[in-house]
TrEMBL record:
Function: Involved in targeting and insertion of nascent membrane proteins into the cytoplasmic membrane. Binds to the hydrophobic signal sequence of the ribosome-nascent chain (RNC) as it emerges from the ribosomes. The SRP-RNC complex is then targeted to the cytoplasmic membrane where it interacts with the SRP receptor FtsY.
Protein name per the record: Signal recognition particle protein
Catalytic activity: GTP + H2O = GDP + phosphate + H(+)
Entry's EC annotation: 3.6.5.4
EC top class named in words: hydrolase
Location(s) in or outside the cell: Cytoplasm
Entry keyword annotation includes Hydrolase: yes
Main location as per UniProt: cytoplasm
Subunit description: Part of the signal recognition particle protein translocation system, which is composed of SRP and FtsY.
Originating organism: Cryobacterium sinapicolor
Family stated for the protein in its record: Belongs to the GTP-binding SRP family. SRP54 subfamily.
Domain of life of the source: Bacteria
Domain SRP54-type proteins GTP-binding: residue ranges: 273-286
Included range, full protein: 1 to 300 of 524
């Protein structure tokens, strides 16, 4: 994955040096941990996550599991892999469907994060799996957001609930609520509610998202974050956690060539799992997120 190419290369180089050694001294371990630390920081992984990660790797690498291993270097790589999986959320977390349909999924995030695109991706993916999703256009901030969702819905082959002119225009909470009621009436089993974002975090936007959340009581709130926003990812995620809270994270634009480490820190910092990854502009550039597969890709 382009986003982690550099990190991947750096770690590969570190492990290549390590493999030339037989038994590992404490100095070897420390040297390796230092290189890993630098590679993670250069990839924009948040400092507190890096500290925690390298602390755990170091402690394990100095312990019995490495000193008694047949191949100590390989054991260190295995430890790094396991700890990386932990940072990325451990087990894969699937969508939770409501016992009584419809399952309500609310999307939140900054403007441009990729929410509207994600709405289409998720809907298409769910429809392929036999669900009958509907999209609700509760982003009334941007003039063309409703039209954009309608285009995405048409591409995904999924209906869109949008406010009628004069009814609910300007009131996203009402549109969201009406959309959910409409979905119930039409027997859709999943409702995906797109909400407005701003270019930066602001109080009014957060309140609107919180009000929508209160009004529709979603089963999942997915926080969509652009992996390319770098260091801001952590502060943005914390602001959304405080303001709306979310049940899962979606990393978007993982196809970009920016350093994606900050986005990788989000699960660890918020304690919320990364559930999906978005890897391009087409509706098919989308996949459930598997922490173990991502760790393997980075360490490949
Ligand atoms: P929203 O404001 O959060 O609804 O964001 P949009 O869905 O409108 O996306 C903003 C821009 O990013 C659009 O031009 C999308 O085509 C693009 N985009 C969304 N997801 C991805 C992705 O995973 N990769 C790339 N390269 N572009 C994306």
């Amino acid at each position: 994955m382009a986003t982690f190419g550099n990190l991947s290369d750096r770690l590969a180089e570190t492990f290549k040096n390590l493999r030339t050694k037989g038994k590992l001294s404490a100095a070897d371990v420390d040297g390796t941990v230092r290189e890993i630390r630098r590679a993670l920081l250069d990839a924009d992984v948040a400092l507190e996550v890096v500290k925690d990660f390298t602390g755990k790797v170091r402690e394990r690498a100095l312990g019995d599991e490495v000193s008694k291993a047949l191949n100590p270097a390989q054991q260190v790589v295995k430890i790094v892999n396991e700890e990386l999986v932990e940072i990325l959320g451990g087990q894969q977390r699937r969508l939770e469907f409501a016992k009584k349909p419809p399952t309500i999924i609310m999307l939140a995030g900054l403007q441009g994060a990729g929410k509207t695109t994600l709405a289409g991706k998720l809907a298409k993916w769910l429809a392929k799996d036999g669900h009958t999703p509907i999209l609700v256009a509760a982003d009334l901030q941007r003039p063309n957001a409703v039209t954009q969702l309608e285009v995405v819905g048409a591409q995904a082959g999924v209906p869109v609930y949008a406010p009628e002119p004069g009814n609910g225009v300007g009131n996203p909470v009402k549109v969201a609520r009406d959309g959910v009621t409409y979905a119930q009436q039409k027997m859709h089993d999943v409702v995906i509610v797109d909400t407005a974002g701003r270019l930066g975090v602001d109080a009014e936007m957060m309140k609107q998202a919180a009000d929508i959340r209160k009004a529709i009581d979603p089963d999942e709130v997915l926080f969509v974050i652009d992996a390319m926003i770098g260091q801001d990812a952590v502060a943005t995620a914390k602001a959304f956690q405080d303001g709306v809270d979310f049940t899962g994270v979606v990393l978007s634009k993982l196809d970009g060539d920016a350093r994606g480490g900050a986005a990788l820190s989000v699960a660890s910092i918020t304690g919320r799992p990364i559930m999906f990854a978005s890897t391009g502009e087409s509706l098919d550039d989308f996949e459930p997120f598997h922490p173990d597969r991502m760790a393997s890709r980075i360490l490949d």
